What we know:
Layout: E1 24-29, H1 39-56, E2 60-63, H2 77-86, E3 92-99, H3 105-118, E4 123-128, H4 135-140, H5 148-163, E5 184-188, H6 191-200, E6 204-206, H7 215-225, E7 237-245, H8 249-268, H9 287-296, E8 300-303, H10 305-319, E9 323-327, H11 333-351
Parallel strand pairs: 1-2, 1-9, 2-3, 3-4, 4-5, 5-6, 6-7, 7-8, 7-9
Helix pairs in contact: 1-2, 1-11, 3-5, 6-7, 8-9, 10-11
Amino acid sequence: MIFWGYRARSGAPPFQPCEFAVTVFSILDLAPVVEGSDAGQALRNSLDLARHAENWGYKRFWMAEHHNMVGIASSATAVAIGYVAGGTKTIRVGAGGIMLPNHAPLIVAEQFGTLESLYPGRIDLALGRAPGTDQLTARALRRDFANSAERFPQDVMELQHYFAPAEPGQAVRAVPGEGLNVPLWILGSSLFGAQLAAHLGLPYGFASHFAPTHLLEAVKLYRALFKPSPACPKPYVLAGFNVFAAETEAQAKRLFTSVQQQFVNLRRGAVAKLQPPLDTMEGYWTPAEKMGVEQSLARSAVGTADMVEDAMRAFIEETGADEVMVTGQIYDHKARLRSFEIMAEVAERINRGTGA
């Protein structure tokens, strides 16, 4: 694979996550808008979760770009990140991710340069090439389908260019943005992103929490092709994983039905907020829908703390992930907090004795 455009500059500060020897745990929050509520409450819940996550020891709090989805409130991702970062103190807050073909690289550099200027040392920027929405909405975003995939590597390198110190006579500069150490990541669910991340020497995140099919192949390819860079001298793999934890397995399985309904509704083209949990999914989905949802959500742990720990240990051993990005679309906010709290307790047990 050949990449062209802006050359990556040397002399960038080392990429901070590469320094960790233990498994890092972070949270992906989609700011779920639940049935009977609204986007404002969803974002306030996100801030509340981030504050708890900071106290529980999570390293990072990711928010994602999605559009035209009534159940997700983080469409203006940079704005949402600023709100969360402003309401927390130490946890890193980042985009997991920004769908770069939806935006001019200069605008992204200015947005995240502003965030880094306001909250220095706490902002991350992961980049994806998918639209984060349907094709009709992508057109409304002025997205160019014909050239977006081919242009994505060049756009990433252009973004690197704007974050680097300005060169003499540089005509276009990101202010704020230039000279700031905003760590860049590549996100994906295919082999393309793995190759690009390896070529540029950037950390790589795989969206295995909803598209797990090529996880192991992509991670293997990324590590095999990785070219060390000043930003990240060794491969760094982040993998997504769903966790629905509760005091009993039955309670956890019930919480899980909200995201199962969400995936069924997406396949049906039904616009809906995150629905209350069901006692059973039988009768709600067809056998074909059940098979498709189970395939998409295969990388999930649903159960008690011990069950989650067993599943998480197996996942880390299988993937060798340096960081696990935990997510869980749970209808009840208190139950969502408790699930992530249980996961934090599990993370502490997993890393106990490894220098954490």
